[in-house]
Design brief:
The complex is a heterodimer.
Chain A: H1 8-34, H2 45-52, H3 54-87, H4 93-101, H5 108-123, H6 130-156, H7 159-167, H8 172-183, H9 185-201, H10 203-208, H11 216-225, H12 229-264
Helix pairs in contact in A: 1-12, 2-12, 3-6, 3-9, 5-6, 6-9, 7-8, 9-12, 11-12
Chain B: H1 9-32, E1 45-53, E2 68-69, E3 75-76, H2 82-94, E4 97-105, H3 108-116, E5 123-124, H4 128-136, E6 140-141, H5 156-160, H6 163-171, E7 173-174, E8 177-178, E9 183-195, H7 202-205, E10 220-223, H8 226-237, H9 239-243, H10 245-248, H11 253-261, H12 266-280, E11 285-287, H13 290-297, E12 302-306, H14 307-319, E13 325-327, E14 333-343, H15 344-347, H16 351-364, H17 367-377, E15 380-381, H18 390-399, E16 407-411, H19 413-416, E17 426-430, H20 437-441, H21 445-449, E18 451-452, H22 459-473, H23 482-506
Helix pairs in contact in B: 2-16, 8-12, 12-22, 13-14
Classes of the chains: A mainly alpha, B alpha/beta.
């Protein structure tokens, strides 16, 4: 059995290979395409295109609008649910949590197809409210991703903190605003990130609910199907940069809050 | 059944990945560089790599009651997938084992991307414009002389192809050579408007203007596909010209129609963009596949449709007790083909492989197999059958009406024998079939006479059309109202000032 021993470094090799093949190399290819033209020469024209084309900026704006609206709606719906679930003393609350997670087990195109029929019943004609329908579809799709992290954070909330605040004279509104809300910020942030980022690019929901306006995902696809790998790659790259910035900002914020949460003690 | 699947990011990324693996492999071979390793022993089995549209061939497994018994005594049923039967047939006929590696593609563009990124196939089945592009780029292996030998009874394609289709393929030139040298037609059809006669009259449906008709506000759909939609809008834009007496009676009507419907000058593209922007305000949606179901459920009343899918939708609606009809716009219609071409990269000069590829086309063109495919996928085959009456008998089996009431004689001679007055090729069908399955599957001569093929465009033209499409599909930043900018500005200001104040307040503690 001696021969089967691996050092820690050796055990890392498969993961390293994985990262190399599926993260580093594809990224390099994307970067290569983004900064070359059809003849393979270096160019920054694609980069300039991104920031000068009214279509690209408009699509970015539209994607952001959808993502922001979806995130806000999800947040407003999910927070009370997560709060009630986490704070309730019900014995069967796992069943309730379970019920909110259950739809995630059903294929989402199937769920959106069903939603399409329901919305048609309510609205009569889907084509009149493409933006609203997209928000509803996205919310339906992403709500569990918002509930779960907030639920977990709120579950960990130390009851003695709330009791201490009440003992020191805070009323229930003050307790919520000064203790519960700040302490649940990490959950909110991870929920927001998990909803905001995918809803910027999930064009399948829009397609299925007949919103023919492009968002970032379908926009990139339209370049690829027109054999324009270069502009498509540049858009992907800028989108990646935007996502990276958002993630970095929020992760910094989460840490800060956790330390701040600690200092509250 | 779907001829144009949604463009798919995942497929694009797979194409990316395959390019990547190619790079890695190239690097690998460069390092190892085994010079022509061991001349391989002649393989016993020929491997034939076929790539076709999804759901575009008989996959067998029919129920027993689906057995088709034709007047000429032929009984047809699909037990196995067509390509499995081919392997068996090839061995029986030529004594050589062949193994078919069958795969599918979603859109012409996907196929093209796969080919350029290094996927190798021997024989593929793209649409008209894509096979023209591939021929023009010298990627296609011409068929051998034996393939066109009418004395060989196993040459089912050349002996059975419809004279009408053959004529089109012989007269359409790419690089001064006819298509027919490179491509064998598989399925064909036209485009038109599928409509619900309860809400839409035939007259209203039989024009490209229906998509902008305010009477059907948000109840009509266009295709989520730049070429089809461009054609429809071009027909709408040029309706006056196309319908003028002078134009229609011109001796060069066909050439002029082709030129008009392939007009991709920047000015025309701009005009189409304007018309399309306006029309987008009237349509329900752009769709690729969902339109058929939406017609049946009544979400929409008219739908831009390919004839084959129209047949499928009408069958579907009949089962649900809804009547749908198919109308071909009076201005003109798009005649389209899907054809088999052999790829130079795949065949690579291997004569045995080429023989197997040509035999594959012939096998698909054998009349009983033609019927199997047509029954299974609903599209119309390019094969008329030549001396064999199987295909025409199948048409009779589908549509001929025994009782005498309300029957009409529907001539299809132009397709089967090249002479539309040929009395051997007249279907005696119920009058209600007009404007329905029969006329969708085999349009009458008059309709066929006002069709145009859509050619392929050069890089510049393709770019312009795609740009037009993107302009229409994207939300333009200039459309953001002023109040929205003010709100965004206010929110940004609030966030920035909040961050500044917070760092001032807590900054010292850190």
């Amino acid at each position: 059995m001696k021969g089967l021993k691996f050092t820690r470094k050796q055990l890392c090799i498969p993961y390293l290979l994985f990262l190399l093949c599926f993260v580093a190399l594809p990224l390099l290819v994307v970067i290569y395409y983004a900064f070359t033209n059809g003849d393979g020469q270096f160019t920054i024209k694609n980069f300039i295109n991104f920031f000068t084309s009214p279509n690209t900026l408009g699509t970015l704006f539209y994607s952001f609008s959808i993502a922001i609206a979806t995130t806000i709606v999800c947040l407003l719906l999910a927070y009370p649910i997560a709060y009630i679930l986490a704070r309730s003393k019900m014995k069967q609350k796992m069943v309730l949590v379970f019920m909110f997670v259950l739809p995630m087990w059903i294929n989402f195109t199937l769920r959106i197809t069903a939603l399409k029929e329901i919305l048609t019943l309510i609205e009569g004609n889907l084509a009149y409210y493409p933006f609203l329908n997209s928000i509803i579809g996205m919310t339906y799709d992403f709500l569990p991703f918002m509930i779960l992290p907030m639920y977990t954070t709120l579950l960990k909330l130390d009851n003695s903190l709330l009791e201490a605040a009440s003992d020191l004279g805070a009323n229930s509104v003050q307790v919520f605003l000064k203790i519960t809300l700040p302490l649940s910020v990490p959950g909110i942030i991870s929920g927001v990130v998990m909803v905001f980022l995918p809803s910027m690019t999930n064009y399948v929901v829009l397609d299925m609910l007949y919103n023919s306006t492009y968002i970032m995902g379908s926009f990139i696809g339209s370049y690829f199907s027109a054999y324009d790998w270069h502009n498509g790659s540049m858009i992907s790259l800028v989108l990646l940069a935007i996502i990276a910035i958002i993630t970095l900002m929020t992760s910094k914020y989460t840490d800060e809050n956790e330390s701040r949460g600690g200092s509250l003690l | 059944m779907q001829r144009f699947k949604k463009k798919n990011i995942f497929k694009a990324s797979i194409a990316f990945a395959s390019k990547l693996s190619l790079l890695v492999m190239m690097a690998g071979t460069a390092v190892l560089s085994i010079p022509a390793a061991t001349p391989q022993a002649k393989e016993d089995v020929i491997k034939l790599r076929v790539c076709n549209w999804e759901e575009y061939i008989d996959l067998g497994d029919w129920d027993e009651e689906e057995l088709i018994e034709l007047d000429n005594g032929t009984s047809i049923i699909g037990e196995n997938a067509m390509y499995d039967d081919f392997e068996e047939w090839y061995y029986e006929t030529y004594g050589q084992r062949v193994e078919v590696e069958y795969s599918c593609f979603g859109t012409n563009e996907d196929l093209y991307n796969q080919l350029t990124l290094g996927d190798a196939y021997d024989i593929v089945c793209p649409s008209d414009y894509m096979l023209m592009k591939l021929i023009a780029e010298d990627k296609v292996q011409p068929f051998s002389e034996e393939f066109f030998d009418t004395n060989d009874e196993n040459n089912y394609y050349i002996n059975g192809v419809s004279p009408y289709i053959k004529d089109v393929f012989d007269n359409f030139l790419i690089n001064d050579e006819p298509w027919s040298k490179y491509a064998a037609c598989y399925m064909w059809g036209i485009t038109g408007v599928l409509y619900n006669p309860e809400y839409v009259t035939e007259e209203e449906a039989a024009t490209w203007a229906i998509f902008d008709n305010p009477k059907f506000h948000r109840q009509v759909t266009l295709k989520d596909n730049v070429r089809d939609t461009y054609f429809a809008m071009l027909g709408y834009l040029k309706a006056d010209k196309l319908l003028s007496e002078e134009f229609m009676n011109d001796a060069n009507y066909h050439d002029r129609l082709f030129d008009e419907m392939n007009d991709v000058t920047p000015e025309t593209i701009n005009e189409v963009e304007e018309v399309l922007q306006k029309t987008m305000g009237n349509v329900y949606a752009l769709e690729t596949d969902s339109g058929k179901a939406d017609m049946v459920t009544g979400k929409i009343v008219a739908n831009y449709q390919w004839s084959g899918d129209a047949v499928y939708a009408m069958d579907l609606a009949d089962e649900d007790g809804v009547e749908l009809n198919f109308a071909v716009p009076v201005e003109c219609s798009n005649l389209w083909f899907d054809g088999w071409i052999m790829l130079k990269d795949g065949i690579n000069g291997d004569l045995e492989k080429q023989h197997a590829a040509e035999a594959f086309v012939n096998f698909l063109s054998r009349p009983d197999n033609v019927v199997r495919n047509m029954y299974y996928i609903g599209y119309t085959s390019a094969i008329a059958g030549g001396d064999d009456t199987t295909v025409f008998d199948y048409l009779n089996w589908c549509y001929a009406d025994e009782d005498d009431e309300d029957n009409i004689d529907y001539p299809v001679g132009y397709f089967f024998s090249g002479d539309n007055s040929d009395e051997d090729y007249i279907v005696c069908a119920d009058a209600s079939q007009i404007g329905r399955q029969l006329t969708s599957q085999y349009p009458d001569k008059e309709t066929i006479d006002r069709t145009a093929i859509m050619g392929y465009y050069n890089e510049e033209e393709t770019k312009n059309i795609n740009q037009m499409w993107i302009n229409v599909r994207c939300f333009n930043i200039k459309n953001v109202p002023a109040w929205a900018w003010i709100v965004i500005g206010a929110v940004l200001l609030a966030v920035v000032s909040w961050v500044v104040i917070r760092t001032r307040l807590y900054g010292g503690k850190k």
